[in-house]
Amino acid sequence: MSIRLWDAETGSAVGKPMFGHTDKVYTIAFSPDNTRIASGSADLSVCIWSVETCTVVLGPLWRHNGYVRSVAYSPDGSCIVSGSWDGTICIWESQTGTCIHGLLEGHTAAISSVAFSPDGLRFVSGSLDHTVRVWNAVTGYPVGNPLQGHSKWVRSVAYSPDCTRIASSSDDCTIRIWDAVTGALKRSLSLPRTGNVYSVAFSPDGRRLVRIAVGCGNSHVRILDAATGTTVHRLSGHTDQVNQVAVSPNGSLVGSCSNDRSIRLWDTVTGLAFGAPLVGHSNFAKSVVFSPDGTRVVSGSDDGTIRVWSTETCTPVQLGPLPRHRGRVETVAYSPDGSRIVSGSRDRTVRIWNAHTGGAVLTLDGHTGWIRSIAYSPDGLHIVSGSKDCTVRIWNVATGQQVGAPLVGHNKSVSYVAYSPDGTRIVSSSDDGTIRLWNAKTRASITTLAGHTGTILSAAFSPDGKRLASASQGGAVCIWDA
């Protein structure tokens, strides 16, 4: 129910938490001048906040009859558009909170995403009714017919910087590029059936989208031209299986790690290797992730070490390698504010490190089997871990103490854990072929989902937290009501 501001340089909290909504906050957006924030909530309202005082300036603003799932400022900051789970859109005057146009109807299902055109004359919306609609931002009237072609929910929409194209992504595993003036489909980019597309964004130059091919044994990263759908670059250089890939926050680099023990950085525009391979691990490099500011990469390896690298010089940062785990490092992650790195190892410990100094902050002991998965809560206050010991554990990040008793129910190794988007639930998957949902506050079991016949490799919440997708070793994908 709160909104928090963080200093991007230091990772420190700025001001006080912003309280005003009475239910989950689903979406926030900065004003163009960075002096205000707009937020949308499950309490059906929109609020406008002062960045300087961390207080509500306007609101709550009520018009919608469903969760407000997406908000966006116009480029000049004069208007805010909001999209709701009730299938309607509202345009607000940002200085007074007056509803200028609304409720705008046309979609026949929930609105998942809204975005203004860079010139501010139009905005686009994506919906669970499988369509994309363009609207006149001045009159509030729809422009032309709905953009039809997706066969499943539209998750995200965006304008190209030059206003000529619109991109939309969908659960049908495609990204579609539309002519923003005529509405004609310019290109449909199909992704492998093994993964859904939950978000789409243009690179800063507006010309390219990065597609990352993921999956067991797939060793290629492709960069696609958004205008033609053709592969611009195939990035090759690793000599063994690529275990994980990541994109830098500004989209300029791709990072990859491999069983060849190296981490590589790639220029997404030229397709060329960026600097030399990052070499130092003495065993498989299992995990790679960029820091929130994109200046560093952290990697975890089967050699038991975590290493931090500069993306500018492609050399180790002086703080690395961090003190060694006594076993293979299976998973690493940055905290939401970028100030901490957390790692899980086969030595049965979870360790928290200072991301700036490399100093050990806390060691979380309790599991009796090796750690397979870790995740930060969305507010950064807790960590959840899943282990070979068949348990799920919740930890207090400040004290390092376990929160309550272990979550017990799986009868085989826990393969994956994650928090729901609102932080109220935890999902765990297991080699026993089941998925379990837990109340993150009370730690009580909510439900058990059974249907897979083998090891479940991963599970993920949908952005609205209402559904779960899971994938098993046999190649099966299941969708569940959460």
From TrEMBL:
User: What keywords are assigned to this protein?
Assistant: Repeat, WD repeat
What SMART domains has UniProt attached to this entry?
WD40
Keyword check for Acetylation: no
* InterPro entries (alphabetical): WD40/YVTN_repeat-like_dom_sf, WD40_PAC1, WD40_repeat_CS, WD40_repeat_dom_sf, WD40_rpt
| Transmembrane intervals | none
Provide the residue intervals of the WD repeats.
Answer: 18-53, 61-102, 104-145, 147-188, 235-267, 278-319, 322-363, 364-405, 407-448, 449-482
Pfam families attached to this UniProt entry: WD40 (PF00400)
Q: Which named protein is this?
A: HET-E protein
Q: Which source organism?
A: Exidia glandulosa HHB12029
